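look at this fold:
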Amino acid sequence: MLFLHKMTNFFFTYLKKIGSTNAFMADVPENERVGAAVFAHEQTAGKGMGSNSWESLPGENLTFSMGVDMSFMKAADQFMLSQAVPLGLLDVLDEMLSPEYLAVKWPNDLFYQDRKLCGILINSTIHGMDMSVSVIGIGLNVNQMQFQDWPTHPISMKMILGKEVALEPLLKQLVDAVDRRVQLLHDIEGVEIIKNDYLNRLYRYRTWSDYEVNGQKVRRFITGIDEFGRLETLDESKQKCVYDIKEIKFL
């Protein structure tokens, strides 16, 4: 651990090398996670959704986690957080990249022109029927120019812009913006804003595209997201098909 200092409403811990920032935060007492954020120069065991790993070269990208108080929200509504977080990132990235090429790939990855720019992993503590504290892990490709994991076609901000991007100012902006979006979830009006903005930025929303379901290639038309965060689609016979995470693969 190199230093601890306050940026905006969060206290930041900078780590030279760590396995996973989310795992680091899991070892912090629950009551100390809120308002805490940890940024790693090098993350050796970064995780994506499910068993996926996250590739990031030391010092070239942003790999960080932040803790937020979600005790005001029911556990059944926790997908709202997965909608708010990528929107917060887009609030910043829209000012730096071309917004028309940026989209949220369900459930919460960020894509730029069909290529993965950012991954998000959220670990939430649940107490009974209510959420408690959520740790939001974010991996944003910033200055890395080559990736081994080509099946997901990663792309970085430097590859798009053709120039280096300063990490620490960007980190501050992103944490601020995500926090602002999370705060909108406190009231009904804010929740509706998040829902509408998420659909407006949803990758492949209301278009026909190819997917894989149970090992078979299928055509589906995305129509929305249900209350549990599942992907709502139509098949070619106009029958409704709903999928949970890992039940459908984007091709």
Remarks:
- DSSP finds six helices and 13 strands in the chain.
